[in-house]
Amino acid sequence: MDRVTAATAGVRAVARIAARPDGRGGTALPTLEGDGPLAPRRTRAAGAEARVMLVGAMSGPLGGDHFTVEADVARDASLHVGSAAATIALPGQAKGGARYDVRLTVAAGAELRWLPEQLIAVRGSELAVTTRADLATGARLTLREEQVLGRWGEEPGRLTSRLTVRIDGRPLLDQEVSCGPGAPGGWDGPAGLAGHRALGQLLVVRPEFAEGPVEPRMLGEYASLTPLAGPGVLVTALAPDALKLRRTLDEAARVLG
């Protein structure tokens, strides 16, 4: 579907990734498909880990669009998913905001590293992002989210982001943030972003964290590491720009090993 024919309704696009052990110590990708602007591509593997890059085949999401990405990692498989470039939320001709849903499933003994590039909410855009990860006991997950409000020198769009993580159906994390024009009051104040325009988090779930929780600590002035009530650690960070945010989250990853 092109942008002309989809202008009144917005684009609907789904990408699906399934990772399974290949029987030779590596990971196979029996399902790797996408339509419209979502184009998953396999890249060079690293050891037992399969690697996939999400490539944007069209601009978006624009107003009225609804994108969905699904990744399922079976037992003993290992998958790394990144993106070729930042995702840019733009205003569109269709009525209403855009949606971007991410659905992740990781089995016991499997590992998923979900490390896309930044999401940029430009002026006039309205985007709701929902990320849901369903893990089995013994699954391993590294998930990074980076959100930038507006391009350089630009007012932000409206961005709402919700992250939900469950282990065997029990909640490990459920949080939502809303920023930009029309968001609840105080989002940019001292108790919110305090004038920063880049926000991000790094979630790491490992079975060993249930036995030996990580100590909470600050990682600089605007970043914190917090153990969750379960086998997980959450790093949250604010920064004036995307580069400094990435450096903070990379340092957090090194701290966590």
UniProtKB/TrEMBL annotation:
Its main location: cytoplasm. Pfam families: UreD. It is found in: Cytoplasm. GO terms for cellular component: cytoplasm. GO terms for molecular function: nickel cation binding. Signal peptide: none annotated. Keywords: Chaperone, Cytoplasm, Nickel insertion. UreD, UreF and UreG form a complex that acts as a GTP-hydrolysis-dependent molecular chaperone, activating the urease apoprotein by helping to assemble the nickel containing metallocenter of UreC. The UreE protein probably delivers the nickel. Required for maturation of urease via the functional incorporation of the urease nickel metallocenter. Belongs to the UreD family. This is Urease accessory protein UreD. The lineage of its organism: Bacteria, Bacillati, Actinomycetota, Actinomycetes, Kitasatosporales. The gene is ureD.
